[in-house]
Design brief:
250 residues, alpha+beta, 8 helices
């Protein structure tokens, strides 16, 4: 490749070509990201695949740009490939974590057990998945902290997906005084809970006895809703109904 745009300053021509490649690379990444967003939105493809596809295209563009720059500066690509093959084992050990995270990302995508927008917990860290790449998964915790989790962690450790299904059970444990009839309490409370506008009609509320202690009978009240982001509000509704009913029956 002839880089002698300025024969008296050969490095200027080299610098210009490299700058052009870098600018073209950035533009290619932005354009590909824009097109992927348009296509996935048009065909209603889930965000998880969107992020993974953008990662794949981005790194492919970076690799091509890197090889082009090597060619511009006069590096023999074929000889480089042979050299990499000779030291491939060493490089493999050095990059094993990156490769492992990459492969884990592919398996997570295939399993479809974690998606962007879902709430998960792994290694005692709970948060909403905001981005999934081939190497890492990003979540935002309830206190608005961003946590980046290597995909190998998700692949090797058990994790909880709180929002995988469309309905969620809301539990509340309370202590009922001994002077209140448990059967009557359960009958009235279940009826009142069932009338709450968020309680699913096809999932009956129930009251289960957990234990008895010196303070009274501990029971667990359960109801089902379908909006995970409002679970705390739902639990507050249950507590309010229990408080009112105990006050009436006490």
């Amino acid at each position: 490749m002839n880089l002698n745009i300025f024969p008296q300053y050969p490095f200027i021509g080299l610098f210009i070509y490299i700058v052009i490649i870098l600018i073209a690379t950035l533009l290619a990444v932005k354009i590909s990201s824009f097109l992927i967003n348009r296509v996935t939105k048009k065909f209603e493809i889930e965000l998880t695949f969107n992020y993974l596809l953008k990662d794949l295209v981005k790194y492919s563009i970076y690799i091509i740009a890197f090889l082009m720059i090597l060619e511009v500066v006069g590096v023999d690509i074929n000889a480089l490939i042979v050299s990499v093959g000779v030291v491939g084992i060493t490089l493999g050990f050095a990059a094993r974590d990156v490769i492992s995270s990459f492969v884990s990302g592919i398996f997570i995508l295939a399993d479809k057990t974690v998606k962007v927008g879902e709430v998960i917990e792994v290694d005692n860290i709970k948060g909403k998945v905001t981005k999934m790449g081939f190497r890492t998964t990003t979540i935002v915790t309830p206190d608005n902290l961003i946590v980046t989790i290597p995909n190998t962690v998700l692949a090797k450790n058990p994790y909880i997906n709180y929002t995988f299904f469309d309905k969620y059970r809301i539990d509340l444990e309370v202590i009922i005084p001994f002077n209140i009839d448990i059967n009557n309490f359960e009958r009235v409370l279940v009826q009142r809970i069932s009338n709450l506008n968020w309680v699913l009609i096809d999932s009956s509320a129930k009251v289960d006895v957990v234990e008895m202690n010196e303070n009274g009978v501990k029971v667990k009240i359960s109801a089902w809703g379908e909006n995970y982001s409002r679970i705390d509000c739902y639990r507050l509704d249950l507590a309010n109904e229990v408080r009112k009913l105990i006050g009436e029956m006490d």
